[in-house]
Design brief:
Shape: globular
Order of helices and strands: EEHHEEHEHHEHEHEEHEHH
Number of strands: 10
Structural class: alpha/beta
Number of helices: 10
Largest sheet: 6 strands, parallel
Radius of gyration: 21 Å
Strand order of the largest sheet: 5-10-9-6-8-7
Helix content: 40-55%
Strand content: 15-25%
Length: 303
């Protein structure tokens, strides 16, 4: 590949975009400086050597294809673990009973609230007392308090980060999260909603990301990963574990449906590079929510 043809291939605001040296748009340039402390030209000169480098940009830069670039910038690796949990028929009966009672007011927030108890032990036991972890949930009511209580019961120092938390308290939480584990004022677990996915820095010391419930969109999932996938000041090599509990009951799983949606969006992004057509194109968030509830009904008819 000739030098003039070398470029960064990114997805910026869900649109494919190619960056050639000296042709950066202002938003892309600002994001480069915010994330890496240098502009596109300096970043290019310091890490680009050969070939095509693919970058997925949801709300922050996620460097995917170049191990050399990741090593030089100190970007951590990500390792996903799926924890399959069979909740048995009791959970399914509880879901159906509440859906029947609430009718049209039954929502995926209710699904997350009802399935959380089946995940709670796996979520809490996955974090050591000296580990830094973020536990993400799409919904707050009936969920964040359960998570907070579960971690506190096991002696963890835990804090909430959602839309109800003031800016002052957010800053205090982030400061405490950066403190060494075991220190008197340190926080080792943050229970967070989508409030933590945009505009929040200082999460570089996170060692585990636990999905108490998966986002409904690939963009939000990448935003969340982007918050923690930042180099530390000393660029120490590290691996962040992403734990995703998948609860199944009578063969039905809201978690599995959402994970399929996220993976399908990743396939769509890849198709801009390799031309491969993804098997599952997904839908809007509202369409996905309806699909989850319809799958519950369909499973009931078949059971």
């Amino acid at each position: 590949m000739a030098y003039a043809d070398r470029h960064l291939l990114i997805t910026f605001k869900d649109q494919p975009f190619r960056y050639y040296p000296g042709r950066a748009t202002a938003p892309f340039a600002r994001e480069c400086r915010r994330v890496f402390g240098k502009g596109p030209a300096a970043l290019w000169a310091s890490v680009f050597s050969t070939g095509l480098i693919e970058v997925d940009h949801a709300a922050s830069l996620l460097w995917l294809a170049s191990a050399q670039m990741a090593e030089q910038l100190g970007v951590p690796d990500l390792a996903m673990t799926l924890d399959e949990i069979d909740a048995g028929p009791a959970l399914y009966a509880e879901l159906v009973a509440e859906k029947t009672e609430k009718r049209r007011s039954f929502h995926t927030a209710d699904v997350d609230r009802l399935t959380l108890p089946a995940k709670l032990d796996a979520i809490v036991s996955s974090v050591g007392k000296r580990e830094k972890a973020i536990v993400y949930t799409e919904y707050r009511d009936g969920i964040t308090d359960v998570l907070l209580d579960g971690f506190r019961a096991e002696g963890h120092k835990v804090a909430l980060f959602d839309g109800s938390v003031s800016d002052e308290d957010r800053n205090q939480t982030l400061t405490a999260f950066r403190l060494p584990a075991g220190s008197a004022k340190a926080v080792n677990v943050i229970v967070a909603t989508s409030a933590i996915t945009t505009g929040i820095d200082g999460l570089q010391h996170c060692q585990k990301l636990i999905m108490a419930s998966l986002p409904f969109t690939h963009a939000r999932y990448e935003q969340l990963r982007g918050r923690i996938r930042r180099p530390t000041a000393d660029k120490t090599p590290r691996t962040i574990t992403i734990l995703c509990p998948i609860v199944r009951t009578n063969g039905w799983s809201s978690d599995a449906i959402r994970l399929k949606r996220i993976e399908s969006k990743k396939d769509i992004a890849s198709s801009t590079v390799d031309g491969t057509v993804p098997k599952f194109a997904g839908s809007s968030r509202s369409g996905l929510e309806q699909s989850i509830l319809k799958a519950l009904d369909k499973n009931l008819l078949q059971s």
